[in-house]
Amino acid sequence: MAYYQRSGGRPSGARTSTFNRGRSRGGSRGPAKKYINPTKFINSATPKAEEIQYESKNKFTDFNFGGQLQHNIDKKGYINTSSIQDQAILPILEGKDVIGIANTGTGKTAAFLLPIIEHMTGVNLRPSVLIIAPTRELAQQIDEEFRAFSQGLNLYSALVVGGVPAERQIRELKRRPHFIIGTPGRLKDLMNRRFIQLDNITTLVLDEADRMLDMGFLPDIRMIVGATPSDRQTLLFSATITPEISAIINNFSKNPVTISVRTSETNEHIEQDVIEARDKSHKIELLTDMLREAEKYEKVLVFGETKFGVQRLSDHLDNSGIASIAIHGNKNQSQRARALKQFKDGRVRVMVATDVAARGLDIPNVSHVINFDTPQTYDDYIHRIGRTGRAGASGHAHTFIEARR
């Protein structure tokens, strides 16, 4: 049976494709790739179904936040709550454990930060709040939101993540911040070195718990959580509930309130296509030709498989006159944050990334996702292409595959 590229979305230089079942080209690095039939990378976009607008029962002013906190909320332009904010803020204010099932980009960070900040106003017990996130970028986003919401409240945070020297983080921890926001690896490291004590933690937040499990952090999380008091308030947020997540909920929380506002994440509205390439040099040639069409490829996220390959591809694009930035695990935290900001702000229109950028980051207005290297699994593919076609916008995804000989 033959399968063909859809018309209308074919990049310059790409051929109409016919394929048979072939082996994936994962190479010898890392875990073996799961075979993904190339037909799964093809989809003619259908109009996005009109979503029923969520009607919030509460505005932010209805929660009776303190004057300075409400001022900071107003300053950010927040008036009406999103579904997760509407339903989670009150039980968190009441001190209940909460399980929030929500998509990325639904405002869940404010949903847990605002009631916690309200609780912490005037509290001298430090540190009192521990927030664990799977990636440096997400931890940094949470810390930035915390700083915006806590202005003028004499509340302080320490960002504890890998990729940067620990000395500055140790200095911040010695100031005894109210909030510790970090990733599992660096948290565990500084706990083992006795720079972090969690005896006084009253609130624990596990953000994107499903992603942390995917990344193999469960043993670290168990160790970290085990060092916190058992009578703490626990808030867990996840996009999905798997048996592993259920086990964490049972072990870490007490009589939690479960709030599910997740909407189905279908990618049917994303135009998906494949591009056949004879070899790697041909792939690079085709990609470079595509990205030269600046009017068509306005804001592009390119996924590669390895840190080295991503950096080399970004360097090649730069040398070809296509400004790009790279984000991968060999970049330190400040380099990654700077690259991400340049892409978000539109100062560069191409970002080349490993899967570190596939989840947890809300990058607006991505016009195209290009899979220069195929993902390890179909689930990874869904998360990659989910960076485009957000908030009702149209999106495009191209995946390079091996040409049939």
Oligomer: single chain
Strand tally is 13
CATH superfamily heading of the largest domain: P-loop containing nucleotide triphosphate hydrolases
Structural class: alpha/beta
CATH class type of the largest domain: Alpha Beta
Report helical residue fraction.
Answer: 25-40%
Distance between the termini: 16 Å
Describe the model.
- The protein is an alpha/beta fold and 405 residues long.
- The protein has 2 domains: 38-48 and 266-402, Rossmann fold (3-Layer(aba) Sandwich); 60-260, P-loop containing nucleotide triphosphate hydrolases (Rossmann fold), CATH 3.40.50.
- 33% of the residues lie in helices and 15% in strands.
- The protein is built from 13 helices and 13 strands.
- The chain has helices spanning 67-75, 83-93, 108-120, 136-149, 166-174, 184-192, 209-214, 218-226, 243-252, 280-291, 307-319, 333-344, 378-385; strands at 98-101, 129-132, 157-160, 179-182, 203-206, 233-238, 257-260, 270-277, 300-303, 324-327, 350-353, 368-371, 395-402.
- The strands form 2 sheets. A 7-stranded parallel sheet has the order 3-4-2-5-6-1-7, with helices on both faces.
- α5 links the parallel β3 and β4.
- α2 runs parallel beside α3 and α6 packs across α8.
- The longest helix is centred in the middle third of the chain and has 14 residues, at 136-149.
- The chain is globular and about 65 Å long.
- Mean pLDDT is 85; it is low at 1-30.
